[in-house]
Amino acid sequence: xxxxxxxxxxxxxxxxxxxxxxxxxxxxxxxxxxxxxxxxxxxxxxxxxxxxxxxxxxxxxxxxxxxxxxxxxxxxxxxxxxxxxxxxxxxxxxxxxxxxxxxxxxxxxxxxxxxxxxxxxxxxxxxxxxxxxxxxxxxxxxxxxxxxxxxxxxxxxxxxxxxxxxxxxxxxxxxxxxxxxxxxxxxxxxxxxxxxxxxxxxxxxxxxxxxxxxxxxxxxxxxxxxxxxxxxxxxxxxxxxxxxxxxxxxxxxxxxxxxxxxxxxxxxxxxxxxxxxxxxxxxxxxxxxxxxxxxxxxxxxxxxxxxxxxxxxxxxxxxxxxxxxxxxxxxxxxxxxxxxxxxxxxxxxxxxxxxxxxxxxxxxxxxxxxxxxxxxxxxxxxxxxxxxxxxxxxxxxxxxxxxxxxxxxxxxxxxxxxxxxxxxxxxxxxxxxxxxxxxxxxxxxxxxxxxxxxxxxxxxxxxxxxxxxxxxxxxxxxxxxxxxxxxxxxxxxxxxxxxxxxxxxxxxxxxxxxxxxxxxxxxxxxxxxxxxxxxxxxxxxxxxxxxxxx
Length: 550
Known about the structure:
About 70% of the residues lie in helices and about 0% in strands. The chain is mostly helical and about 550 residues long. The chain folds into 4 domains: about 120 residues, no CATH class; about 90 residues, no CATH class; about 100 residues; about 200 residues, no CATH class.
């Protein structure tokens, strides 16, 4: 079916609509009924055309389309046909501007409100002398219809609210509520309709079957995500609880926005996550479990892409912060949100790292590693390894702390901390690749420690360690990620090297992939350290300065 229409087509149907203005005659009634199938098909073409255009563009290209839609909306036979009625509502919704930018769009919105009000009441008997009543009230037609629309919506809300308590007529009322939800599909971006939408979302039927129309829930979720309508948190929460596909779309939409952003500031990404209301809704345990499932599938599909792992880490960090400050609602213990075969590991990862001494950090990390290594020896199935790895990703700050402790503590190179880094970057150990990653990381760590203890600053020394140009093809990709992590950490925590740190970073970021990994380590470090009570201003300043070049 064609999805575009011409101005000539619209003018032809407009002439026909003018002919139909007197629907009291039998001849006109028959003609309208005869043309209804073709009219329905034409309105579908109009809708497919309008939904890809702005209001200004529509009026510029089809100047008489308003006359056509207006006449059809006032034809009782046309709007008496349910499918045609719905298409007319859809066309009006396309012309409505949620944020009018000029006088044309504002005038179009006012006109649409009048028609919507009329269509809402089209099934009810009209009162005689309506225009005389308007005149007696001494208000304009626009004001009258605005008030009438609000009264209609208030009446529908009262019906929905009372339906909850009338058990005798529950089945009939459920169907009535479903009908209202279908009617709202094409007008849900009208601000006046928002209270009705909230009442619908907070309505619960008599049985397990969803009362509200599925398509209504899909369209409403899209409008919420695009900020075309603003609803209360309780209404949005109800939407996601009763329609899980909408929740999945909301989470994936957030993922896509964050990945496309490629932000150098994880604080900015945190703010976007918090503004989405997904973090607050995650306090509901059922929804949090669904978030984890969606994150898990995203991680599997992208094969551990660093951007996805960072998003999961930021989401978890934002969630735990929200959990700690929300003292008003009763909720499960925090550990219950991260079910695992090892409660001890969950508790260890949940521990706050702020304020811990270097020795306490190393000791705590060794406890984490002991649990993971036991699992790795006893339960080598891919599914089990993935569960523990996924849990570690949620609390990846501990991995970054492990890298820092390797290069800054007075202890010898710790096999436990190296193993944790190797497990994070290469969890499955296929063909002993993790063992190789760990050996290469240990060699690199030893060389970096030698530079750390040596006051000589020389770009060639780092180049010999990293050997990007000569050995990158020979190294496993996981080894490269880990070694870049160690090198960036070394540069940040070595004040003597800050004088040539930009040249060193340039050496390490010869490819887009390397640049993405290095900037991610810098951004993670900045986000973790830039909190009250952390005395790391110099490192924060350097990390922020370096990120400006990415």
